[in-house]
Amino acid sequence: MLVLVAGCGSGAADPPAKAGRSASAQASARPKPPARPAAKPLPAGQRALLAKEARAMYGAASGGAVPAFDRRRTAIVGMGDSEMSGEGIGDYTPSTDRPSDECHRSPASLIDRTGARVDTAVNLACSGAASADVRAGGDAQYADQPAQADQLAVQARLTRVTAVAVLVGANDLDYGEVMADCVTRRLRLGRPCAKTYGPGWGDRVSGAMTRVRGAVGSIREVMRDAGYREADYRLVLMSYPSPLGPGTGGKGLGCLAYPSDGRWARDTAVPALARGLRAVAGETGAGFLDLKGLFDGHEACSPAPWVRGLQLDLGAGKNAVAGSFHPNAAGHGVMGQCLGAFLHGGRATAVCTANGVSVRLGPA
């Protein structure tokens, strides 16, 4: 803030002029932010969908037209896989909980629980999604679920998106299958899984990050094509909290992991993935929110878990273990608090930890 103090009372003299440019000249010389780019036209199918959504959001009188950028409803958007969609909560939007669409989006997912001051939270994430399912132009994950960045292209023109949060990468390295294998090794009298996966884990993460980088870059391009400057919104790449810890070998069929495997997951596998995601965030100019230690003391099978253990539903076919090792409703609530604090605080990178049900951001 620039404060100018003039002389007061009768007879106050004007201060002597100083050499150099005036304040107004200096202000006019400051670099102006780049002009907002014009939005590129959408393909016919997406244009029709945008018009339909505009009538629903802004009323029939809009004729399917969207208001000017600064007059649109505001939104935050969640993208990625089951960790973002809400898999594991069990309460799913009906249209995403059927054989033809098993994205399993929950109204209690973290993107709906940030406390952000926006008009709406939009969950585009889909269970089972890998980076290719996020990237623009990718194959539809289901008939009614085109690539998430293609859905974002419509949403970014319908609303004024202030933040895009992304949780993706786990399915690029078959993370869920690895965790399920680790937990059941003991039941099958197998050797600890860390000895199987540990030697090649770093290479596995590196390969996955190449695909994640492409997905995040695609989101940037979609937002630019929708008429956004990077300063108009926050793009946040999030890491995953560890579902396992040394105490995951507790009582019950869902708590069978060797303590050494729980320790490997918490202290090696999950931190390696977090480091890879942080590097991608730095390369793409995204913010990075590190959640790797958020569930410490609240892993599967702990006294107060924020993540589900192994869940077996023999009547669910290929989804017999769906929801296993995913955050429960309490876990999503804490993750949502972390994201909300990150968006409010404006840090470029941060680590989020929990103390009870309150969260704290620290330097990453």
Mean pLDDT: 87
Strand order of the largest sheet: 2-1-3-4-5-6-7
Query: How would a textbook summarize the main sheet?
Result: 7 strands, mixed
**What is the number of helices?**
10
Query: Fraction of residues in helices?
Result: 25-40%
Summed up, the domain count is 1
CATH topology term:
Rossmann fold
- Our Rg estimate from Cα atoms comes to 24 Å
| CATH top level label | Alpha Beta
Q: What is the string of SSEs from the N terminus onward?
A: HHEHEHHEHHHEHEHEE
The secondary structure category is alpha/beta
Shape: globular
Topology:
Blueprint: H1 23-29, H2 44-58, E1 74-80, H3 82-85, E2 120-123, H4 131-134, H5 148-158, E3 160-167, H6 175-184, H7 194-197, H8 201-225, E4 234-238, H9 259-284, E5 287-290, H10 329-345, E6 349-355, E7 358-362
Parallel strand pairs: 1-2, 1-3, 3-4, 4-5, 5-6
Antiparallel strand pairs: 6-7
Helix pairs in contact: 2-5, 5-8, 8-9
Summed up:
The protein has a single domain (about 75-360), classed as SGNH hydrolase (Rossmann fold, 3-Layer(aba) Sandwich), CATH 3.40.50.1110.
Any overview of this molecule?
- 34% of the residues lie in helices and 11% in strands.
- It is an alpha/beta fold and 364 residues long.
- The chain has one domain (73-362): 3-Layer(aba) Sandwich (Rossmann fold).
- Strands 2-1-3-4-5-6-7 form a 7-stranded mixed β-sheet, with helices on both faces.
- Helix 2 (44-58) crosses helix 5, helix 5 (148-158) runs parallel beside helix 8 (201-225) and helix 8 (201-225) runs parallel beside helix 9 (259-284).
- The two termini are 30 Å apart.
- The model is unreliable at 1-19 (pLDDT under 50).
